[in-house]
Fold this protein.
Amino acid sequence: MPSVHSSPCYPMENPALASLLRHTTGENNKRNKFSTGGGLLKMFKLFPMLTSGCKMVALLGRPRKMLKDSATTGTIFGYRKGRVSLAIQEDTRQMPIFLIELPMLASALNKEMASDIVRIALESETKTNKKKLLEEFVWAVYCNGRKVGYSIRRKQMSDDELHVMQHLRGVSMGAGVLPTASDHKDSDGEMTYMRARFERVVGSKDSEALYMINPDGAQGPELSIFFVRAH
């Protein structure tokens, strides 16, 4: 797997991944002029905060019009002292079409976000293409060009993951802390999440990308997620 660097100056040996990266290359320099640091904190400021169970219950209990455009919803969540998971949904009221626990601690991802540009690449090394790309199970995971390990796509959600999806079923975008389950271990820290809407770009049957849409066109950190199947 070639390195996925934040700079467009690095040569890309994987044509499929290179074409997806070029989708936002023209915007990167413009965004960098507005970059002032802050990473995860600045990203959180872009979204509404839901920091208590009372606020969450009030939100979910109030009828609201759901957004029905073609944007995909992505959620990154996990305990502060644990690993983070990635869930992708076409409809927040339905189960994720893709769910995986990334081989990254929340603290490590926070450090990467401090650079304002985060590119997560997942590469399937399956030699056949009998399945749809997001149906592959084993993925090598890279973050900003560095390999961080391997993960397996989940067939079924864990209790913690189900807990998060249920609490966020009426949320289109947001960031904050979720009320914890009754059997939660305090040693893991709080359950945090960041949910955003993404533009989904299909390069081919072996490559897809998700580009985070900042709310109301606000300048902020760039988060991109790439899926590539190697041959």
The longest strand covers residues 191-204.
